[in-house]
Amino acid sequence: MLLEDFNAADSGEALAVLQPCLDIERWCREILAARPFASVDALLECARNVAEPFTSSEVDAAMAHHPRIGEKPTGTGTEASLARAEQSGVDPSDTDVLAALAAGNAAYENKFNQVFLIRAAGRSPQEILDAVAVRMQNTADEETVIVAQQLREIALLRLKGVMST
Question: How confident is the model over 20-30, as pLDDT tens digits?
Answer without folding.
Answer: 999 899 999 99
